[in-house]
């Protein structure tokens, strides 16, 4: 495998890579960069954390930096489309890092904030535009962005775009692209709709696939912990108290659940923050930065953070709630074990989540083994249904934690001791009286 120094990149890019101590390309970088430098379309399939941002950013910067042209107002040369604000921001940071010695201008366009500063930046000219679909279409409709001079188009995390319902927006954007362009298409999975979209976008592409067929991440230790719903919080506290938990990302199913769990962890003495779609952009960035700096140990998130959160050193991912879509499981656990590091992914499974667990195991093509040394949370009694039965009947508390016979009601403690018959004889007259009334 070639080193970065051997790749035919401009000297300012080589200098930036040396400053970042980049030596050997990852597999997707080694396969993508030479083909992209030759102007070929790319169809890339790779899990998150494999280095694909550099795989497309470096050849784009090389293309723009020679010659170093002036960017016209509102007419970018490159468009990179990302599904979330967080991913767009990180892509922008990567372009800034690798292109620090080039005189190129980039603009970020995403929702959740005022468009005023974005419109002003576009009017000054942008070589590279990194955008989310909704805000991009909005500004195009207002006449602030025209794509007639576009030379390179990148669609990142395409499957996530479809999961978020962006397919109609994507088709409208693609219809505005000039026919004579280079396109780079990346997705962690390749379901039929993604393949159809790639065929409409790419011309004779070079296929780059560094994703194992199981779609699971081999370096991540995966375990499932069977627990009643009412015992999840105590179990999480025990896990987070372990010495090997340096930085943990905890996923919940709902925004309200993320807020509530983060507040409960704070009360228990854990430095915690929540991130989800209802948080303002500023609040989300502050939470991410605190998590990156380790002033926050636990980040509680909904699936908005399952993609695009590129933070090294996340030792544990905890699925407090199992995701409904099995694909989300892969993206969630991919937040740990990044850049060749090992990681641990723990999933809590209550009786009502058994179907979700089976769907995940079918999707990844393997069984998620149960934790051998699962802590036993001191949870309250399971909720009872209207008929008096246990809802989580398959998750009974250990016998040692059940009430002793001396503390049970008299009717339960007296069974088999000759006291139940007199009770039934005393109840019979009352039953007859009710029937004749």
What does the model show?
- This protein is an alpha/beta fold and 437 residues long.
- The chain has two domains: 4-209, 3-Layer(aba) Sandwich (Rossmann fold), CATH 3.40.50; 220-364, P-loop containing nucleotide triphosphate hydrolases (Rossmann fold).
- It is 38% helix and 14% strand.
- The protein has 16 helices and 13 strands.
- The strands form two sheets. It has a seven-stranded parallel beta sheet with strand order 3-4-2-5-6-1-7, with helices on both faces.
- Residues 212-216, 378-426 and 431-437 have low confidence and may be disordered.
- A motif (Q motif) lies at residues 2-30.
- One of its GO terms (cellular component) is cytosol.
- Its EC number is 3.6.4.13.
- Residues 33-208 form the Helicase ATP-binding domain.
- Residues 2-30 form the DEAD-box RNA helicase Q domain.
CATH superfamily of the largest domain: P-loop containing nucleotide triphosphate hydrolases
Mean pLDDT: 82
Q: Mind telling me the C-alpha Rg?
A: 28 Å
Query: What is the helix tally?
Result: 16
Q: In whole angstroms, how far apart are the ends?
A: 92 Å
What is the string of helix and strand elements? HHEHEHEHEHEHHEHEEHEHEHEEHEHHH
Q: In terms of structural class, how would the helical and strand content be classed?
A: alpha/beta
Key descriptive features of the protein:
single chain; 437 residues; alpha/beta; Rossmann fold; 2 domains; 7-stranded parallel beta sheet; 6-stranded parallel beta sheet; 16 helices; 13 strands; 38% helix; globular
């Amino acid at each position: 495998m070639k080193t970065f120094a051997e790749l035919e990149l401009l000297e300012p890019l080589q200098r930036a890579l040396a400053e970042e101590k980049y030596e050997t390309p990852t597999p997707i970088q080694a396969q993508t960069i030479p083909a992209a430098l030759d102007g070929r379309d790319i169809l890339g399939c790779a899990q998150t954390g494999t280095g694909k941002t550099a795989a497309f950013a470096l050849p784009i910067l090389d293309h723009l930096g020679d010659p170093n042209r002036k960017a016209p107002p509102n007419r970018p040369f490159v468009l990179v489309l990302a599904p979330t604000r967080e991913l767009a921001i990180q892509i922008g940071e990567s372009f800034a890092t690798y292109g620090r010695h080039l005189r190129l201008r980039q603009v970020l366009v995403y929702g959740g904030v005022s468009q005023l500063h974005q419109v002003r930046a576009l009017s000054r000219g942008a070589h590279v535009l990194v955008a989310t679909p909704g805000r991009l279409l909005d500004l195009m409709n207002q006449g602030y962005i025209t794509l007639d001079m576009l030379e390179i188009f990148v669609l990142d995390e395409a499957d996530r775009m479809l999961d978020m319902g962006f397919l109609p927006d994507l088709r409208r954007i693609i219809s505005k692209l000039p026919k004579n362009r280079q396109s780079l298409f990346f997705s962690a999975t390749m379901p039929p709709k993604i393949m159809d979209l790639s065929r409409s976008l790419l011309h004779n592409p070079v296929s780059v696939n560094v994703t194992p067929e199981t779609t699971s991440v081999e370096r991540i230790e995966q375990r499932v912990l069977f627990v009643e719903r009412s015992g999840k919080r105590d179990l999480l506290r025990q896990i987070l108290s372990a010495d090997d938990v340096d930085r943990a990302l905890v996923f919940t199913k709902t925004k309200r659940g993320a807020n509530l769990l983060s507040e409960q962890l704070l009360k228990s003495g854990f430095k915690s923050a929540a991130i989800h779609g209802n948080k303002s952009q500023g609040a989300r960035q502050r939470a991410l930065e605190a998590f990156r700096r380790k002033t926050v140990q636990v980040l509680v998130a909904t699936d908005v953070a399952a993609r695009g959160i590129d933070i090294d050193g996340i030792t544990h991912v905890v699925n407090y709630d199992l995701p409904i879509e099995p694909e989300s499981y892969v993206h969630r656990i991919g937040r740990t074990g990044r850049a060749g590091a090992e990681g641990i992914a723990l999933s809590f499974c209550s009786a009502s989540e058994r179907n979700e667990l089976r769907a995940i195991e079918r999707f990844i093509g393997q069984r998620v083994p149960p934790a051998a040394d699962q802590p036993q949370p001191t949870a309250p009694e399971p909720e009872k249904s209207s008929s008096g039965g246990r809802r989580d009947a398959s998750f009974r508390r250990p016998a040692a934690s059940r009430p002793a016979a001396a503390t049970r009601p008299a009717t339960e403690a007296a069974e088999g001791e000759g006291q139940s018959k007199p009770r039934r004889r005393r109840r019979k007259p009352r039953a007859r009286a009710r029937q004749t009334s």
